[in-house]
Every structure is written in structure tokens, then in C-alpha cells.
């Protein structure tokens, strides 16, 4: 087991990678715990949950609504959870987002911890303290920065993930390699069979490297006022694709990374061979799809993006594999590039 500590001005958060998830019982208080999970995870692992009251939500984005938070707060009240209470999330990104937000606002804040069960959640969503729910179809507009007490990443649990969920998580792993740790890219290029077969030890090492990089970023910029913006590589276009097409987050981000890579090349931030290498890796794992959206639709969706400031947005470019840079651009410049890409079939 490897341990990474995220040290922010207000909290400490321990990320435990390679630990067996059942060991979570050693990290919990004896009383006042409620477990939050979804139907799918409860069917797979419910018999092995620690012996506390369990609250089950539907899987998927439909559970990330304020109305769900209100309902869950009522459930906590019924179960006698007070300000000394603790919420344990066992699930992927949606469950951890909901649990983290709920914990941060219930009785003005109680403690929580996560057993992260998806690759997407292990490498990205459950690390860093972002919580949130959606406003209609717009993702994570309502949320907080609130660090969990701990996150357990047991890569054995990834074997039960549906194929599309697993591949979605690989896209975020690629993102981390592109913006901060090029050794992740080398490993993904050179170990395709082991990655596809979900080798537990190799995945644990990749998750560790991804979390180590993100933890360093979060410790320096918890509230995303500067450096942490690089973690949004691929997300400006990606969120537009996700909202319009309703695809898994990672596939949308992969589409966004492909466009952002081409955009970086068009500005001479990367060389042709780097551009081809990045897009080749996305294609190797079959992550890129042809999503058809009008430039007008893309503009409308980008204008809903949380990173927008007036008619400008902080856009993340690649300045070399393992290195990112953020430029503030007019939204119309980004949309014009998208229009150019589609008209020339780049």
C-alpha cells in the first residue's frame, strides 16, 4: 500500500492506494456512520459493507441534483447522524461527489471518506476535494471545496467495472500524463495488453503516479485560482460534448483532448510528432469518436462552462508531453478553431 497526503491550509487528506477496501473499517469511528452507495455497487459488494446504516441512490448523473441532497439530508436526520457523524461513500465519481457535497453542507459540515470504485474516480474525481451537483444538464455548477478524511483506491475493484466505465477512466489517466507526468504516457504506450486486461499491480502504480501529481497541484492551489486549472485539459470541448451527446465523461474528455492537442499544434506549442503521438495514443485505446455538433451549439455550451469569465475562458494547451499551459482566450476564438477543424476534417 502507498499513502499520499494532501496538505491544504484547512485540512489533511490521506489517499491510500493498493489497500484492500475492506480495511476501511479501521478508519471509521465506532458510531454515527452512514454509508452512501448506489444500486450497482450494493449488489456487487453490499454483503461486505461495514455494519452501518446504508443509503442507496440510483447510479448516474440523475442523482447529482439538489433535490437528491435534500432527500439524503432527511435520511441522515432519520438515522440520527449529528455533527459528530461521518459519511462513507462507496462508489465512483457520482457517489463521491454527492457524498462530499452532502457532508460539506449537512449541519454546516461533517466528516466523510471515500472508497473509490471506478478508475475515473481513483485517478481524478475523488482526489482534490471538489464536490458538486448539477444544475439541470450543466455539470457541477453547485458545489464546494471540501477534502475527505481519506480515499481508498483498491484497483482490484476495477475488475468489476463495465468496459465503457473502465475505458472512460483511462482517458483521465492519459490526461494526467499529458499535463504533468510523461512516464504515464510511456507506460500506457508500452503495456497495452496489461492495461486492457486490468492488471491490478500496474494499475495501482499508474493510479499512484496520477494521484501524486494531482495532490501536488491541489496542495499549491486548492481553490483553482491558478495552477489547478491545468487539470481541466480537454474539458472545455469535452464538457460541451458530454452535455450534447450524453456520453461517458472520459470519452467526452478524450474528444476534447484531441481538439485541444490540434489547437496546441496550430499555435506551435507542440511539434507535429508530439501531436501525432498524443492522438495516436487516444486512438490506440479507441477513445476518440466523431461527435457532430454545430459551432453555434459548441459556443452556447462553452458559455455555460465554470471556467468562463465574461466572454473569455481559461483554455488549457499542451506545451510538450508532460507539460501544460493556460491561456485566457475569447470564447469566439475557441469556437472559430472548432469550426475550422470540422470544415477541414482535421
Word description of this protein:
- It contains 13 helices and twelve strands.
- The chain is an alpha/beta fold.
- It has two domains: about 1-160, Rossmann fold; about 165-345, Dehydroquinate synthase-like - alpha domain (Dehydroquinate synthase-like, alpha domain, Up-down Bundle), CATH 1.20.1090.
- Strands 1-2-9-6-5-3-4 form a seven-stranded mixed β-sheet. A three-stranded antiparallel β-sheet has the order 10-11-12.
- α3 (about 95-105) links the parallel β5 (about 85-90) and β6 (about 110-115).
- α4 (about 120-125) runs parallel beside α5, α9 (about 235-245) crosses α10 (about 250-265) and α10 runs antiparallel to α11.
- It is globular.
- The mean pLDDT is about 90.
Could you give a short description of this structure?
This protein has 346 residues and is of the alpha/beta class.
Q: What is the highest CATH level, the class of the largest domain?
A: Mainly Alpha
Radius of gyration: 20 Å
What's the number of extended β-strand segments?
Answer: 12
Which sheet architecture does the biggest sheet show? 7 strands, mixed
CATH topology of the largest domain: Dehydroquinate synthase-like, alpha domain
What is the number of helical segments per DSSP (H or I, 4+ residues)?
13
| Nearest-integer average pLDDT | 92
Domain count, please report it: 2
| Shape type | globular
Order of helices and strands: EEEHEHEHEHEEEHHHHHHHHEEEH
**Share of helix, binned:** 40-55%
Q: Output the structural class.
A: alpha/beta
Kindly estimate the percentage of residues that lie in beta strands according to DSSP: 15-25%
Q: Any idea what the CATH architecture of the largest domain is? A: Up-down Bundle
CATH superfamily of the largest domain: Dehydroquinate synthase-like - alpha domain
The strands making up the biggest β-sheet line up spatially as 1-2-9-6-5-3-4
The low-confidence runs, each spanning 5 or more residues with pLDDT under 50, are: none
Amino acid at each position: 500500500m502507498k499513502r499520499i497526503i494532501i496538505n491544504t491550509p484547512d485540512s489533511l487528506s490521506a489517499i491510500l492506494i493498493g489497500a484492500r477496501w475492506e480495511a476501511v473499517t479501521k478508519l471509521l469511528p465506532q458510531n454515527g456512520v452512514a454509508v452512501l452507495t448506489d444500486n450497482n455497487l450494493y449488489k456487487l459488494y453490499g454483503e461486505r459493507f461495514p455494519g452501518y446504516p446504508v443509503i442507496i441512490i440510483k447510479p448516474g448523473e440523475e442523482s447529482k441534483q439538489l433535490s437528491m441532497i435534500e432527500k439524503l439530508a432527511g435520511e441522515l436526520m432519520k438515522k440520527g447522524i449529528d455533527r459528530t457523524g461521518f459519511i462513507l461513500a462507496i462508489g465512483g465519481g457520482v457517489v463521491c461527489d454527492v457524498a462530499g457535497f452532502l457532508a460539506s453542507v449537512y449541519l454546516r459540515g461533517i466528516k466523510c471518506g471515500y472508497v473509490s470504485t471506478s478508475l475515473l474516480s481513483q485517478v481524478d474525481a475523488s482526489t482534490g476535494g471538489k464536490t458538486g451537483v448539477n444544475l439541470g444538464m450543466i455539470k457541477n455548477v453547485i458545489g464546494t471545496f471540501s477534502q475527505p478524511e481519506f480515499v481508498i483506491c483498491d484497483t482490484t475493484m476495477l475488475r468489476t467495472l463495465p468496459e465503457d466505465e473502465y475505458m472512460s477512466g483511462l482517458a483521465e489517466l492519459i490526461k494526467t500524463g499529458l499535463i504533468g507526468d510523461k512516464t504515464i504516457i510511456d507506460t500506457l504506450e508500452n503495456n497495452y495488453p496489461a492495461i486492457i486486461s486490468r492488471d491490478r499491480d500496474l494499475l495501482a502504480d499508474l493510479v499512484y503516479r496520477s494521484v501524486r501529481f494531482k495532490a501536488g497541484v491541489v496542495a499549491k492551489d486548492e481553490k483553482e485560482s491558478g495552477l489547478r486549472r491545468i487539470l481541466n485539459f480537454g474539458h472545455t470541448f469535452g464538457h460541451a460534448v458530454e452535455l450534447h451527446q450524453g456520453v461517458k465523461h472520459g470519452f467526452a474528455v478524450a474528444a476534447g483532448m484531441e481538439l485541444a492537442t490540434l489547437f496546441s499544434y496550430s499555435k506551435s506549442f507542440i511539434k507535429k510528432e508530439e501531436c501525432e503521438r498524443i492522438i495516436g495514443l487516444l486512438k490506440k485505446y479507441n477513445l476518440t469518436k466523431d461527435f457532430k455538433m454545430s459551432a453555434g451549439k459548441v459556443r452556447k455550451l462553452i458559455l455555460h462552462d465554470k471556467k468562463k469569465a465574461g466572454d473569455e475562458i481559461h483554455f488549457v494547451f499542451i506545451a510538450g508531453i508532460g507539460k501544460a499551459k493556460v491561456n485566457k482566450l475569447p470564447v469566439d476564438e475557441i469556437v472559430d478553431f472548432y469550426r475550422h477543424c470540422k470544415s477541414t476534417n482535421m
